[in-house]
Model the fold of this input.
Amino acid sequence: MAAEHCVVLVSGGLDSATVLAIARGRHQYCHALSFDYGQRHRAELTAAAQVAQSLGACEHRVVTIGIDAIGGSALTDMRIAVPETPTSGIPVTYVPARNTVFLSLALGWAEVIGCADIYIGVNAMDYSGYPDCRPAFITAFAQLANLATRAGVEGTTRFAVHAPLMDMHKDDIIREGLSLRVDFAQTVSCYQADAAGLACGRCDSCRIRRDGFLKAGVADPTRYRSG
Done:
């Protein structure tokens, strides 16, 4: 069962959609997992559901967790503005411990299902400087997964955390997704997308996404707000 099943973190964005498509090529059953964590751009959850369905996930679950209760990020605290110009250092859109929490819950679900493989769409090339998107973090979490679980300790499962986009630029990710028939028009990447999923076109995520389509030489299907 372990090789046939996997858990895939699906945010509703461009990267995670591509990762789900990659996982579908490797596993018969992909269990898609999304989070309502108090993010201001909840439109990505609608996108995640569409992506999971169109890319053939065997099921899609949305887990509600209150990361917004601790604040500390422009994505979970409406009092903190989302930057619309490039910034240096780790930006205020970084959500403290987000990927640690997400991967922990994905690990728990993987152990319940009885599968060994967890997929996440982190990227260390064209990203916003988040510390939990680096190879060192993924390696460390995989080690933790095999130390902190019954399946890992008893040796019944050797957990692996896959980050297939880690060393890819955004244009390469777009090309890979298109080759796997990902419909990027379904995805939402904007940090301050409105309820209808329309992108602002100004935040860091929008800039990276727009530049990726430009470098890939393909039309940008993103729906932007007018004005």
